[in-house]
Structures are given as structure tokens and as C-alpha cells.
Prior knowledge:
Number of helices: 8
Shape: globular
Strand content: under 5%
Order of helices and strands: HHEEHHHHHH
Structural class: mainly alpha
CATH topology: Arp2/3 complex 21 kDa subunit ARPC3
CATH class: Mainly Alpha
Helix content: over 70%
Radius of gyration: 16 Å
Number of strands: 2
CATH architecture: Orthogonal Bundle
Number of domains: 1
Strand order of the largest sheet: 1-2
Amino acid sequence: MHISEGVLPVTTLALGWGATACGLYIGFRKLDYHRMPFVAFLSAVFFIGSFVHVPLGPTSVHLVLNGIVGMLLGWASFPAMFVALFIQALLFQFGGLLVLGVNTLNMAAPAVVVHYLFRDWLRSGDGVKFVLASVLGASGAVLMSAVMVGLELMSCGGEFRNAALLVFAAHIPVAVVEAVVAFFVFSFLRKSRPEVLKEL
Length: 200
């Protein structure tokens, strides 16, 4: 779900960098240094998830995982995803350095939103709330990111309208898959490392 260089206008790029800078500032301020290895691990998981491409019609999609990362990290999602996207842009030309601010915002902002919406349900003892938090958090973050990317593309002109609609449609099945993955990930953590969920 990377936006490539040369697509967005300068004003959108500047706004993206401004919002991402704020997110990074808050993320580093709220980051507990004893959790740094965990943040680095989730940054690596987010990085690797982008390389698992699945053909879908005329395009391909990949796991996003921002919902899982967001519910576990909160504001620390901004530095975690920024580092992963920076390395992808630098080494593999996914996106680019100029559009890095917008791409980070598109991934990390929904991650922070689902963290605050569903963290209490995720760490509760209620089984129904736990399932809903896993499913809605993971799928919701993916769909929010797709909407943000779509709106940014549509703001560039009518010629990008079809691309914007394709981006959103292509990520509906991704949202479903990630909901299932998130449920198993959080169920595993709940049984083997419950302290991770209690620290949310």
C-alpha cells in the first residue's frame, strides 16, 4: 500500500511529513525503553510482512499488519513503522524518501486509532470482547489505511480515481485475512505471554 514518488503534490507531502513528525515525537516520548526489543521485533515483522505478495486480479496485495502492531504498541507504532518503511524505501525502492512521511502516516495513524479503541477489550477477560478486538482492530486498521491512500490518490485528480477504488477493493480480502491472523496471534499471546497484553 505504498504510494510512489511523483504522485502526490508538494502540499500533501509536506502535511504528511508534518503529521508523521508529530507522531514520531509522541511515539518516542511514550516509548518505554525496556520495550525497545519488542518494538524492534514488531518493526521487523511489519517489514517482512510486506514481502509476502499474493496475486489478486490485475494487481497483488500483501499483509499490512498495522492493526496487530498498533494494538500492541500504540504511539510507538510511528517509530516502528517509520524505520521499516525507511529501510524499504532505501533498499528496495518501495515508496520513496519524499513520500515516506505520507506512507508512514497512512500505516501508523490507523494503528494508533485501533490501539485506543480496542486495547481495553483486548486485555479484558471477556471472550467476546477479545475476539471483537482482535478482528475489528486488525481489519479496521487495514481498511482505514486503504481509505487514506485512496483519498490521497483521488485528491491528485480524476485520473487516479480508478486506482484509488482498486486500492480499497483489493484490501478488503487482506482485512479479512489479517482479522484471522490477529485472532490467532493475540490468542497465542494471551496463553503464553499474558503480560504483553496487560501492558497495553
